[in-house]
Amino acid sequence: MDVIAVKGLDFSYGNTQILKNINFTVPEGRFAVLLGPNGAGKSTLIKLMLGELPLSGQTGKIELLGQEIRQFKDWKKISYVSQNGMASCQNFPASVEEFVQAGLYTQIGKFRFAGKREREQVRRVLHQVGMGDFAKRLIGRLSGGQQQRVLLARALINAPRLLLLDEPTSGMDEDSTTLFYRLLYQINREQGVTIWIVTHDRKRLMAYADDIWLLEDEKMKLVQPGREEGEHGNL
Ligand SMILES: Nc1ncnc2c1ncn2[C@@H]1O[C@H](COP(=O)(O)OP(=O)(O)OP(=O)(O)O)[C@@H](O)[C@H]1O
To answer: InterPro entries from the xrefs (predicted)?
Structure first.
């Protein structure tokens, strides 16, 4: 099954065309990377996939998990990690576990407190991203790399089938970046979560990616078609 299917997609901001007849698919379980020069439209494409920008008229279509995005309702199955996603939360007086738990609110309802099961889910995802010991820390007191791992934990709390990431390691040092990519790879290979990541970091992500796409001059090209299991070497 294709988790993402984009067919004949055009998009313009006013009179400026950004995307022209974009076609691509991402089958379930792939680790797919999107490269492209600054201003090529990579973030725009992600916003369209998240329904944050309207698709108007006859502009092609986007399907997620086999459903046209205009009718899509399964948003809990899609998670998103943005670049410096906690920049606006630096003075937010929430602990790491409270922040991750907030990702569950759609599930537990506004007026229900998290019970044992929900707290266990939070503990599990924090442990998974190596932030188990930081549960009680204020999110504003973490390093940039730690904050992005907490965002990743929150993105995982509802067990998504697709994880969209927009330059999630920007500003991180080498070690934090490598750790972050390894986590993504683990999530992809062990839990089967499909990954679609926008990045400029082609060199390092090549080792993890199945498919590498390039968005350039309004068009999408597959520059490294899918590799098979066992071709990734030692990560
Ligand atoms: N809301 C907007 N209104 C008008 N133009 C916009 C808007 N958002 C982005 N653009 C323009 O659309 C083009 C594509 O932007 P986008 O952010 O999607 O590119 P990108 O490939 O993600 O770039 P980068 O690698 O620099 O993040 C750019 O020329 C940008 O200036």
So the answer is: AAA+_ATPase, ABC_transporter-like_ATP-bd, ABC_transporter-like_CS, Metal_Ion_Import_ABC, P-loop_NTPase
User: Distances in Å between the alpha carbon of 20 and those of 37, 38, 41, 70, 197?
Assistant: 16, 17, 10, 19, 20
pLDDT in tens, 33-43: 999 999 999 99
Name the residue with higher pLDDT: 130 or 225: 130
Question: What is the C-alpha to C-alpha distance for residues 212 and 35, in angstroms, rounded to an integer?
Answer: 7
Domains observed in the chain: 1-221 (3.40.50.300)
CA of 104 from ligand 1 middle (Å) equals 31
44 CA to centre of ligand 1 in angstroms = 6
Residue 1: is it exposed, middle or buried by C-beta count within 10 angstroms (0-12/13-18/19+)? exposed
- Which phi and psi (to 5°) does residue 10 adopt? -115, 150
- Look up residue 178 and give its amino acid: T
Residues touching ligand 1 (Cβ under 6 Å) are: 13, 18, 36, 38-44
Residues 6+ apart with CB under 8 A from 182: 235
* pLDDT digit string, tens, across residues 172-203: 999 999 999 999 999 999 999 999 999 999 88
Q: What span, in angstroms and rounded, lies between the C-alpha atoms of 128 and 99?
A: 16
User: What's the token pair of residue 144?
Assistant: 């940039």
Distance CA 3, CA 161 (A): 8
Q: What is the dihedral of CA 94, 95, 96, 102, to 10 degrees?
A: -50
Instruction: State the number of CA atoms in the 13 A half-sphere of 55 facing the CB.
Output: 24
Asked if this assembly's ipTM is beyond 0.90, the reply is: yes
